[in-house]
Structures are given as C-alpha cells and as structure tokens.
From TrEMBL:
Name of the protein described by the UniProt record: Nudix hydrolase domain-containing protein
Species of provenance: Kwoniella mangroviensis CBS 10435
Keywords: Hydrolase, Magnesium, Manganese, Metal-binding
Classification via SUPFAM superfamilies: Nudix
Transmembrane portions of the chain: none
Cofactor: Mg(2+); Mn(2+)
GO MF term list: coenzyme A diphosphatase activity; guanosine-3',5'-bis(diphosphate) 3'-diphosphatase activity; metal ion binding
PANTHER family, per database record: NUDIX HYDROLASE, NUDIX HYDROLASE DOMAIN-CONTAINING PROTEIN
C-alpha cells in the first residue's frame, strides 16, 4: 500500500490546475459494479501521467511495434488482456506497462490515482483504464522492442481542445529522458498510410492535417459512434495520430481531471452510452462477450437485466 506521504510533496512544482487535476482524479470513482465480467474478454490500459518542466501534466504514449498482430505502428497506451496471476485491472495495467515500457511495479514510485468506467472495443473486449502518476522522476523507460517502437508524451489537457494554440507546452518532449535507450528502439518508423478526412466524414476545420478531427462510424449495428483523432506533432517522423479507443479514454481522463468538457462534441447524434453498448454486446447471443460470460458461469449476473431490456424494447414495438 502507498504511504500516507502526500503526492504533492513528491512532485516537481505544479501549476494549480495540474494539482487540482490530480486531486480530482484521486477522488474519482465510477459507480460500483456488482456484476462480473469474463476474464478472457477483459483487458486494462495504463494512463501514465507525469509532471513536465513547466508544471503541466503529460501522458505517456507509445508507438506499437510494426510486427504486432493487431494495430501495428498505432499510437497506444500501455495495456493488454488479462492474464492468469493478475489480481485485478490495476494488476493487468501495471504488468503490461512494466512489460512494454519498463514502468516499475513499485506502487510508491508509480501511484494509482483512479480507475475509469469500462470501455468496449470493436472486438468485444472490456477495457478498464487505470490512471497512474509517476512520482519518481529518476525513472528511465526501458522499451520492449517486440511490442513498442517509440515512447513520447502529450499534455493531458490536449484532449480537451481542437486547436494546439489552446494547449500549454504542446511541443514539450521527453527525449532527454530516453537518451539511454538504444538508437534502434527510437529510430523513425516508416510513415503510415495517408487517411483522408473529408468534410462528409465530419472533419473539423475543413483542412487535411488539422490537430483535431473526428469520424462517425456505424458500431456493430448499434448506430453511430464518434471516433476522435488528434495529431501528435510527430507525424513527420512516422508517428500516427491518437485515434479511436485511446483518444476516447484520454478525453474522458482529461474531462474528469480538469472538470471541463471538451470544446468539441464528444458523441455522434443519438450515440449510445458506453454502458449501453456493453449491454447490447452482452445481449447478442452469438457474440464473443456473451459466450465468454456463459463459459465462465457469469451469465446469472446479467440475464435479469437482459430479459428486462428485451421486454422494454418489445413493449415499444
């Protein structure tokens, strides 16, 4: 268990808004969930924060290795699926962050602030974001080249804004903290394919290459879901934008921490909430989430709600 030492006393000088952000995240807790999720469809990601030189909060992001089976070269948060031995979502997030970027398992050097509500991926994984704060600034990342090609940072507040001019210290880099990593780990990767964001797809600003854009997509037959996209400022080096689930998690983290809604609409018209999307996937009798619940003997946790929702839908027909 972490000691009673205040986090503030362990950190470099903080801007007042950064300190308040940390305190809000410490106090945050989603609604208590009494129902269990299948372990084989569970995952966690680590939202790793640290204090920059000017007192702002930054989040660590990585470029996935090019030979990964899924999402190769994408910008991501450290994370992955549950494995035997993981006690909980925090355990999964910490283990993955240790394996991918060498983040210490020491809970004094890397403090847990909170967990967010669960998210669902396009392939029906239930993902728990765990927000961590580095309090030991002597740490040096150690990247696992089979999983991670590059490590960089962005201001957490960036995910509340549609223009970089609104973001403090947007060009701050952590390259001075990763100078000891072998050159073959941090060399530039090949540039990703160009993605066209036309006005019909919901582009903000009307120009290719704007810092923030979005695209509304149809999500597994559930209607529209807004996919957000943020440039990192490193696209010329082959770094892909922050997109999709990673962007959604960081928008939510920043919104809670800074107690502020983004200056862009978060949801598409008529978009279902994350909990509604999870319930929909659970109701799908042929879906992997439903099959996993049944195989792990957890369907009783959910079937009553599922039956009630079916009755409600039928009554409206």
């Amino acid at each position: 268990m972490p000691s009673s030492t205040s986090i503030e006393s362990l950190l470099p000088p903080l801007k007042p808004e950064s300190l308040q952000c940390i305190y809000r995240l410490q106090r945050y807790g989603p609604s208590v969930e009494n129902r269990r999720y299948p372990k084989r469809r569970s995952a966690a990601v680590a939202v790793v924060l640290f204090v920059g030189r000017l007192g702002d909060l930054y989040v660590l992001l990585s470029t996935r290795a090019g030979d990964m089976r899924t999402y190769a070269h994408d910008t991501a948060l450290p994370g992955g699926k549950y494995e035997e031995g993981d006690v909980d979502a925090e355990g999964t997030a910490r283990r993955e962050a240790y394996e991918e970027i060498g983040l210490p398992m020491d809970r004094e050097k890397v403090r847990k602030l909170c967990e967010l509500e669960k998210f669902i991926t396009g392939n029906s994984l239930i993902v728990t974001p765990v927000i961590l704060l580095i309090t030991d600034h002597t740490l040096t990342p150690l990247l696992n080249p089979s999983e991670v090609r590059r490590l960089f940072s962005m201001p957490l507040s960036a995910f509340l804004h549609s223009r970089p001019s609104q973001i403090p210290s947007f060009h701050y880099r952590i390259s001075h903290r990763i100078s000891s990593i072998p050159h073959w780990v941090i060399d530039s990767i090949p540039p990703p394919p160009i993605v066209n964001y036309s006005m019909d797809d919901g582009e903000v600003g009307g120009k290719e290459g704007r810092f923030y854009q979005y695209r509304d997509i149809t999500w597994n037959g559930q209607g529209l879901v807004r996919m957000h996209r943020f440039l990192t400022g490193r696209e010329g080096e082959g770094v892909r934008p922050v997109y999709g689930l990673t962007a959604a998690i960081l928008i939510r983290s920043a919104s809670i921490g800074y107690d502020q809604q983004p200056d862009f609409p978060v949801c598409a018209p008529g978009q279902k909430s994350m909990s509604e999307r999870i319930i929909y996937e659970i109701r799908s009798e042929e879906g992997p989430l439903r099959r996993a619940l049944e195989s792990e003997g957890l369907w009783d946790d959910w079937k009553d709600d599922s039956q009630e929702e079916k009755k409600s839908v039928q009554s409206k027909l």
